[in-house]
From TrEMBL:
<dbReference type="InterPro" id="IPR014352">
    <property type="entry name" value="FERM/acyl-CoA-bd_prot_sf"/>
</dbReference>
<dbReference type="Pfam" id="PF09379">
    <property type="entry name" value="FERM_N"/>
</dbReference>
<protein>
    <recommendedName>
        <fullName>FERM domain-containing protein</fullName>
    </recommendedName>
</protein>
<dbReference type="InterPro" id="IPR035963">
    <property type="entry name" value="FERM_2"/>
</dbReference>
<dbReference type="InterPro" id="IPR019749">
    <property type="entry name" value="Band_41_domain"/>
</dbReference>
<dbReference type="InterPro" id="IPR029071">
    <property type="entry name" value="Ubiquitin-like_domsf"/>
</dbReference>
<dbReference type="Pfam" id="PF00373">
    <property type="entry name" value="FERM_M"/>
</dbReference>
<dbReference type="InterPro" id="IPR018979">
    <property type="entry name" value="FERM_N"/>
</dbReference>
<dbReference type="InterPro" id="IPR000299">
    <property type="entry name" value="FERM_domain"/>
</dbReference>
<dbReference type="InterPro" id="IPR019748">
    <property type="entry name" value="FERM_central"/>
</dbReference>
<feature type="domain" description="FERM">
    <location>
        <begin position="1"/>
        <end position="153"/>
    </location>
</feature>
């Protein structure tokens, strides 16, 4: 807590293997739940008065909580609030298609079966084709054993 904001930011970037740091920053919520940018030149303890401990998603015990968290993340990805690379959109899109349509069945689905499903803010034909390639490889043992949220976690 005596370290400056840039030290924390550098650690986060190192952990994420993020080299182009100029496009990013760290935000936190204060005691009034207001969003603030972490000032890299100031000590952490002077900026963050009471650091609350938020649970890691893997530590959540309720299925419904994990489910709603996954729905929120999916909405953030689709709306563009949570930017993703092409590869990440492809992978998450394939999980979305699997959770909504189940296993790939060419007789049932046809050739343009995912055009109505939204999984990226600027969805292109190229992205849809890559998603279909991945989706064709997925097989669920039983649709009742897996919820849509479990495919995103």
């Amino acid at each position: 807590k005596r370290g400056k904001g840039h030290v924390l930011f550098d650690k986060v970037c190192e952990h994420l293997n993020l080299l182009e740091k100029d496009y990013f920053g760290i935000t936190y919520r204060d005691v009034e739940n207001q969003k603030n940018w972490l000032d890299p030149s100031k000590e952490l303890k002077k900026q963050i008065r009471s650091m609350s401990k938020n649970p890691h998603p893997s530590q959540l015990s309720e299925d419904i909580t994990r489910y709603y968290l996954c729905l929120q993340l999916r909405d953030d990805v689709v709306s563009g609030r949570l930017p993703c690379s092409f590869a990440t959109h492809t992978l998450l899109g394939s999980y979305t298609v699997q959770s909504e349509l189940g296993d790939y069945d060419p007789e049932e689905l046809g050739s343009d079966y995912i055009s109505e499903i939204r999984f990226a803010p600027n969805q292109t034909k190229e992205l849809e084709e890559k998603v279909m390639e991945l989706h064709k490889n997925y097989k669920l043992v039983s649709a009742s054993l897996c919820s849509p949220a479990e495919l995103w976690t």
